[in-house]
Amino acid sequence: MKNEYAEWVVVWYSNVPASKKPMENPSQQQEGEKAFLAAYDEFGDAIFRFLTMKISDREIARDLTQETFTRAWDFCVQGGEIREWRPFLYRTAYNLVVDTYRKKRAVSLDALIDDQGFAVSDDSAHEKRTIVRAEMSRVRKGIDQLDETYRDIVLMRYTEDLPPKDIARITGLSENVVSVRLHRGVEKLRTILGPDKKQI
Amino acid sequence: MKFFNIFNTKDDSQLAPPTAGLAARIKAATKLTMDETSRQEMRAHLFEYTKMRPIRVGSGAPREHVSSNKRGALTFIRRHSMSAVTAVLIVMVSGGTVAAAETSLPGDILYPVKVHVTEEVRVALAPTPKARAAIAVERAERRLEEAATLALSGKLTDEVRAEIDANFERHVEDAEDSGTQLASSNAQEDASEVRANVGAMRVARENILARRIVHTAKLAAKAARNNEEAATMSMSAEPTFLAAQEATTVADDTETKGRRTAAKVRIDASRKFLDHSPIHLGTTTEVKARKQLKAATDAFFSGEVDAALGNKAEASSNFDSALEAATEIQTLISVSQDSKHDSADEDDSNNKNSNDDENRGSSGSDNVNLDL
Question: What is the mean pLDDT of residues A82-101?
């Protein structure tokens, strides 16, 4: 039976015009690679930042960033099509943390970012730079005091510039819940930061 | 400059939403990027990964391009014999089955479809002995991957092992036959490549299908034996010394290639296992296994880069490390499973209590996540 089947298919296949034969287009791999690497160039840093802030460990975040992208490629290999890379990658990264990494954050956001020095334009005066650093540090400490529930969403909205619709898709929450949490998170952060000290 | 605008009251007051000042401050305070070296390294790894796992023919969007054009279909039926049309219908009806069978493992209902139908069709469609040999080697590799996957979940029984081994041998013999055909049609280069691939598959088999995990020392001993055999085989017109030297190089290459294949098979199997684990691993084991998988993948990629650059010794050592790290994952998982069984046997009631506590704990943390 198996050989007859194979012969039938051979006869049929030899009669199919070349243009109709599936996947005799070697460019699919190339196009896939191109889109994949372009997505890495565009969103690699953002995914790394997102993961670093989520788990507070740069080394593990680096590993998970790589894993996020390899999973995205695996999805393409299995026949999936990624139309919007940004929400797809964030969702993959988010799930990766939720599924595989449940450790509680041990390092504060401020220590994490302060560690590697904060980039301020070179022509800035030393005094101004100090002021900026102090203010940034105050904001980071404020964010750290937020409950995880609000913190994640505030960071996704304002650091990652993701619209509430995408945040809802990434976290699996409804858009309405995201908007409510965002609003509450911002209010809480305002309260934590106290009166506006922008002109310190 | 941009940062100082945040502190400028005039500029801030011009921003429409009341949260704009705070939003900008959050963004500025959380700027973080990967260092350039890491970024480039990761890019290189990902590029290698796309080469290691290419988009297979027949997968993806083009499947949707099958024409539903009425005129085209009628013309097709008029132009082709009944048997061809039947074949097309079978392909169309069984398309889903075939796709589902692709991921099946020995013991699954659809496994025979994968081995005896879809793969046989591919062999029948291969136009040249070289292509047939490549498919046979790929099939042998698939058998090894199946064995590695089953071994991870503790389902590689002697019976299954024997079945996979028999299929593996069949594929390797097919590859050898194609190699002989190539040799007889004066395609010596292709023939020797097929021989090298077959040798590599046999080395890989030792690691995956042998009853106990074979470590690299044993593989090295086998390589030494291979060297002697190869030296005897290529004694023809050349002086014995040169022939032996060349044979040693060939055997070394085969050995490296074999370990590369074994590492690749184990890495792929481990990744699939961890992603779709049928067994619940503890968080600690899973994190450890993933770390190990990462180490194996990194070593494998380094090996690929070295091999591409012609650094044979480095490539060989990297593939060794990759293989050891990948083999370690199996040990890690089986130890975790064994200890789980032991503790279950020792104290069922205690275990139940602690599980209840754990469940309460985890549902508690879920509540924290979901509450507004």
Answer: 86
Q: Which residues of chain A neighbour B46 with C-beta distances below 8 Å? A: 36-37, 40, 66, 69-70, 73
State percent of chain B over pLDDT 70: 60
Q: How far apart are CA A198 and CA A161, in angstroms?
A: 22
Which one, of B371, B323, B332, B347, lies nearest residue B204 by Cα?
A: B323
The architecture that CATH gives domain A25-112 is Orthogonal Bundle (1.10)
Burial level of B65, CB count in 10 A (0-12/13-18/19+)? exposed
The whole-angstrom distance between B12's CA and the closest CA on chain A is: 10
**Min distance A81 CA to chain B CA atoms (Å):** 7
- For A105, left (φ over 0), alpha (ψ -120 to 50), or beta? beta
Which residue ranges make up each domain of chain B?
126-224, 255-339
* DSSP output for A83-101: S-HHHHHHHHHHHHHHHH-
Contact between A93 and A46 (Cβ < 8 Å) = no
Contact A68, A47 (CB under 8 A): yes
What are the domain boundaries of chain A?
Answer: 25-112, 122-199
Question: B122 is written with which tokens?
Answer: 């591919």
CB contact under 8 A, B369 and A100: no
pLDDT tens-digit readout, B181-216: 888 888 888 888 888 888 888 888 887 877 554 444
**Would the ipTM clear 0.95, i.e. be above it?**
no
- Is there a contact between B315 and B257 (Cβ–Cβ < 8 Å)? no
Q: Do A181 and B372 touch (CB under 8 A)?
A: yes
pLDDT band at residue B366 using 50, 70 and 90 as cut-offs: very low
Q: Which residues contact A113 (CB under 8 A, 6 or more apart)?
A: A140, B29, B30, B31, B32
* Count of Cβ atoms closer than 10 Å to residue B98 Cβ: 18
Distances (CA, A) of B247 to B172, B184, B194, B226, B316: 21, 21, 16, 9, 17
Asked if the model's pLDDT at residue A188 lies above 80, the reply is yes
Residue B62 is classified by DSSP as: G
CB atoms within 10 A of CB A3: 10
Alpha carbon B101 to chain centroid, angstroms = 17
Residues of B in contact with A28 (CB under 8 A): 55, 60, 62
List chain B residues with CB under 8 Å of A101: 287
CA–CA distance, B225 with B233 (Å, rounded to integer): 12
Report how far residue B335's alpha carbon sits from residue A112's, in angstroms, rounded to the nearest whole number: 36
Question: Picking from A41-50, A145-154, B330-339, which range would have the lowest pLDDT averaged per residue?
Answer: B330-339
CATH code reported for the domain at A122-199: 1.10.10.10
Chain B residue with CA closest to A61: the answer is B34
- In this structure, of A36-50, B181-195, B231-245, B248-262, the range with the lowest mean pLDDT score is B231-245
* Interface touch B26/A101, C-beta < 8 Å: no
- Whether residue B6 and residue A198 make contact (CB cut-off 8 A), yes or no, is yes
Task: Give this prediction's pTM.
Answer: 0.43
